[in-house]
């Protein structure tokens, strides 16, 4: 199916099941332990041994020698593979930066340098500790982003976007601010660590039961890393215990399990210990963001500059905090620039809403500061600078309802009763403040395929390598197929995450829901055509599929009678045409937050949160709500507590576990309210829906930060806003 | 590796006397995470089955808390208001699972500066009972914890029980903990207070602060300043002078200056909580 023009009225505009609050299909399985995660795939391969990883104890340098004699002699040990046993394995894909294994070169702390395979977990772990490693550590490696920023900030760089004469417009602006904001590195902190069961067969085929968001990427990456035929690789990941970008790409668990299994001649399972997840895999890079805004006397932005600096390993891309600033607000002149500070911290890579999540932490605080400079209501300031066109590209938004998010949110939240003078509203020991922030995140779509199999009993099995990382894919794909085929949703079985299935979009960049449901719809369209043929029609036009029947004129045929002796299989994929790129397809939100800040200690307690989201058709209000409230929790963490603490002498992430890397707990989160605007975006895809999973995070931290300022009068420009950053400036009481 | 689960104190002490490195363990909630990737050297003596170390018993007006008593047991046991602070601490030690496995004695022996149990027990004037094959000695808790992860426990000794002395009549208590999130958090600072009144005046108080010095400390000057004050009028009483025994450091959870300021506020809050609930 080619999606080459905007969707017209179609079956999804009279939905019976799409758009309904269908409970998550995998929910009962997960809450009762019947959804096996990668490390629990005990039944897929017999004789599983256990692998345990060893990580480098230095951040940069070379490994001179590895003594494995004692480890090999330890009880239960069946195989050991060290990085010195081979040349560096190829970097798995263009989206990886560091190589995952092999050779003597160390690029970052806890890079994998050995795997020990033993009969039990305890044996493998104990033997790993017996390996003696001699290093030659490089002196003078860079680990401090703020220090790097100070050195590079005055060196001019070519701007990524330069529209008009920013400098002149800024200098002549009636009002202006020039501020610098800092975000610290963050970790995805998903519950399930990376884990893989690997098994080789006698023909050199390898199967990896793993935890991954992008099955096709994983399959290709394994083939590239092991320099083998891609058809000899199978990847299976039906249940994923959280990904948030940490599982977009294969990581060393896959490589170590496969190497270990090959060396031991037996299947091997390996799960990363939590500290290894933090330092071996990826993180969201820290950023330093200089933002300059100039406005005319009425508050129209005449000049906007956003310069972002972030950390990356050499050759990587860091965290681009500037993307939203190119498109989100009307600006007569623009200057967008990024700088990369190359340093030997672990690999910086995608984490939920890469770019915007950090960038809006800066931009939305700057918008708040600018509104204050202007003496304007921050909601009004954003409304004044609303636009239907991206100032950077000149392209129109396909559908943009940001102003509605702001106005309907303000009314629902009671914005008119907010505290207007920072630091002035008290309830007992608590200073009360209110904050608002806007959110913007593109909503891309990508080719996605599926196979539908109509069974003799009238049921349908859907197969696609799409993943469900807790997002609701199982559920919304079942809804889409039930809708397209006019069936009861109970008669639709969805199978995901196996590379033997048709290639899908996978889960990432909030493109999964739009793309994979369209792919399932494409397959259903092919099936409807085939069913039509079976009842003597050339195509499905004019046929109606409802209540488990196909109706042609006055003749009604139950689907159960269509394939009495077997099944009908139909497969197709959706391809999104270039017309989609003629518009800016994006999602929008406004977040409103009320906080209490303790006047004596600076403790911040979020008291109320409201998010109003513009994300096209909401396919399932339950799963979409879960996505957004999860994002809002993550935003509270980003604002108040989540910080990877860097040992700037050694290049080590110190707080490498969930006791010390503090994500919010239930007691930190008040009741959250989420409103979805009832919008449709026919340019986005045949279902007129858009992504929502990343939107839920975007802007939240800025709204919290602005509320904290409003409560206290203390503007903390370095996230996270921990208690000690507020104390000095708290108002006298 | 050997794993021994003695059922009497005598068995436990003789196991400890055997050659070869043996570690004492109860809930294991500190011992096992502290290993990291290192294997356990030597063996383990599991103290959770030792009869003499079980249970909470009223004795001579005071209480004996066995060395194997968990935080959960403290919470479940009916105890007078002077234990409210200890119970509040019990609710804040890690998660419910940690509270069900971890013991008070283990919290003391681990001797973390941020140990949630120590301030509440200091404020109760607790003593530790240290058993060895040579007999039993008792030490005030303040003398038992000697430094960061250092105690006065000698080789061959087991912390077999805690003793809480008779508390003044009407003694009430509180415990407060400050962290960057609301729960499941490693303390920035924490305070426990026990105090009692006579004739409408505060007759005595014990206040202890954790995570603001290498070892949790009582604040004698503040305790003295409280005596004779009227509880209704109690406002901000804690002054910087009262905090002289503390030496807070800056770390990833908070700066030293922040800790000093927060302790003063937390002391006042803990006093109000003990007085007024």
Quick overview:
The complex is a heterodimer of chains A (733) and B (277). Chain A is of the alpha+beta class and 733 residues long. In chain A, 25% of the residues lie in helices and 25% in strands.
Report on this structure:
The complex is a heterodimer of chains A (733) and B (277). Chain A contains 17 helices and 30 strands. By secondary structure, chain A is an alpha+beta fold. Chain A has a 7-stranded mixed β-sheet with strand order 4-6-2-13-10-11-12. The mean pLDDT of chain A is 97. Chain B is an alpha+beta fold and 277 residues long. Classes of the chains: A alpha+beta (733), B alpha+beta (277). The A-B interface holds A 122, 125-126, 128-130, 273, 275, 600-603, 605, 640-641, 643, 645, 654-655, 659-660, 662, 664-668, 722-724, 727 and B 36-39, 178-186, 188, 252-255, 257-258, 261-262, 265-266.
Keywords:
heterodimer; A: 733 residues; alpha+beta; Aldehyde Oxidoreductase, domain 4; 7-stranded mixed sheet; 5-stranded mixed sheet; 17 helices; 30 strands; 25% strand; B: 277 residues; 5-stranded antiparallel sheet; 4-stranded antiparallel sheet; 10 helices; 29% helix; 26% strand
Q: What's the overall average pLDDT of chain B, rounded?
A: 94
Q: For the terminal residues of chain B, how far apart are their CA atoms?
A: 49 Å
N-to-C SSE series of chain B?
Answer: EHEHEEEHHHHHEEHEEEEEEEHH
* Overall form of chain B: globular
Low-pLDDT residue spans of chain B: none
Largest sheet of chain A: 7 strands, mixed
pLDDT < 50 stretches of chain A: none
Overall strand count of chain A: 30
Oligomer: heterodimer
**Order of the strands making up the biggest sheet of chain A:** 4-6-2-13-10-11-12
Given helix and strand content, the structural type of chain A is alpha+beta
* CATH class group of the domain at 393-443 and 585-729 in chain A: Alpha Beta
